[in-house]
Amino acid sequence: MLRVEDQVRKVAAFTGVLLMAAAEALAQEKQAGAARRIVVSIPDRKLAVMQEGKVVKVFSTAVGAPQSPSPTGSFKIVLALENPTWYGKGKVVPPGTNNPIGTRWLGLSLKGYGIHGTNAPQSIGHNVSHGCIRLRNHDVEELFRMVSEGDQVDLYGERTTETVELFGAPKPATAATLVASAAVTAEHQ
Question: Would you please indicate which residues are annotated as catalytic (active-site) residues?
Answer without folding.
Answer: 116, 132
